[in-house]
Amino acid sequence: SIRNIEKIWLDGELKSNEDAVVHCATNTLHYGLGVFEGIRSYSDGENSYIFRLDEHVKRLFDSALIMNITIPYTHDEVKRAIEDTIVANNLKEAYIKPMVYLGSESLSLDTREHTVHLMVIAWSAYNYASNGAQGIKMNVSSFTRHHVNIAMTKAKANGNYMNSQLALREAKNAGVDDVFLLDSDGYVSEATGANVFMVSNGVLYTPELANCLNGLTRQTVMQLAKDAGIEVVSKRITRDELYIADEVFITGTAAEILPVCEIDNRTVGKGCVGELTQSFINDYQLMVRAKLPNYTRWNYKLNIL
Ligand code: PMP
């Protein structure tokens, strides 16, 4: 668990759990201006591979640019830090979270002079929903997803997740696994930490990127579908379109591909894992372990494990 992590990468050094600490006046802790990534590595029994490492690191730098934060490392240095953290903790399969945050120079809202720091935490498990394989239950949230000009949703920014946390707590208290957040116009945006897909009449639909994160799992599934000759359409989607879809699933690095079998107390499709959803799940599990020959460019092999 995250409590007994051996080593945490902090500002260029691998430190013990006790030594990897931040100051109480850490600006990001107070106001949430920081950026992070969620990355995963998988083992095929012999080797370990980080899935789409380059794209995750690129998105970390994009998030920082959006938030006007200059990361004091190169793309390659961040990759190296991620790799070193996994190896130092001897993790065959890992969830990895690099986080860029502002220092403790002041608790001012003016952050132009703050130092910028990087931590990398890696641990062994991340369970988005416990009963995932059989399909999860979701509601539509009472909370609205960020308006694009309130929180810029292309950035994976710390503060953006307050909205997700409030929505998820409400969901769990209502007895469902996750929720769909609607955008400020009332269209489906995303789940608390995952993108949304639906299948109708053999066509794969997903909300356009207007106000959701440009998920790498979303991109992966779209590519898989295109390569399988399935029509893929990004468009505005309403909650009732989800109710009457043949299949619904959500995607994310932590969630992977999770079938959704019930929405707002309505059974989706046949009420169990849809055929297309199951085939994406099967392909994805092979792909992340470097077992799909056409996609091994996305498997970054770790050197030591
Ligand atoms: N939307 C949100 C809000 C997320 O936090 C995530 C998880 N990073 C996703 C979508 C899915 O993105 P990815 O597939 O890149 O993990």
TrEMBL record:
GO cellular component: cytosol
GO biological process: aspartate biosynthetic process; folic acid biosynthetic process; isoleucine biosynthetic process; L-leucine biosynthetic process; L-valine biosynthetic process
EC assignment: 2.6.1.42
GO molecular function, one term: L-valine-2-oxoglutarate transaminase activity
Metabolic or biological pathway: Amino-acid biosynthesis; L-valine biosynthesis; L-valine from pyruvate: step 4/4; Cofactor biosynthesis; tetrahydrofolate biosynthesis; 4-aminobenzoate from chorismate: step 2/2; Amino-acid biosynthesis; L-isoleucine biosynthesis; L-isoleucine from 2-oxobutanoate: step 4/4; Amino-acid biosynthesis; L-leucine biosynthesis; L-leucine from 3-methyl-2-oxobutanoate: step 4/4
Alphabetical keyword list: Amino-acid biosynthesis, Aminotransferase, Branched-chain amino acid biosynthesis, Folate biosynthesis, Pyridoxal phosphate, Transferase
Cofactors: pyridoxal 5'-phosphate
InterPro entries from the UniProt entry: Aminotrans_IV, Aminotrans_IV_CS, Aminotransferase-like, B_amino_transI, BCAT-like_C, BCAT-like_N, Class-IV_PLP-Dep_Aminotrnsfr
Reaction catalysis annotation: L-isoleucine + 2-oxoglutarate = (S)-3-methyl-2-oxopentanoate + L-glutamate; 4-amino-4-deoxychorismate = 4-aminobenzoate + pyruvate + H(+); L-valine + 2-oxoglutarate = 3-methyl-2-oxobutanoate + L-glutamate; L-leucine + 2-oxoglutarate = 4-methyl-2-oxopentanoate + L-glutamate
Family indicated by similarity: Belongs to the class-IV pyridoxal-phosphate-dependent aminotransferase family.
Function: Acts on leucine, isoleucine and valine. Involved in the biosynthesis of p-aminobenzoate (PABA), a precursor of tetrahydrofolate. Converts 4-amino-4-deoxychorismate into 4-aminobenzoate (PABA) and pyruvate.
Record's protein name: Branched-chain-amino-acid aminotransferase
The organism of origin for this protein: Pseudoalteromonas amylolytica
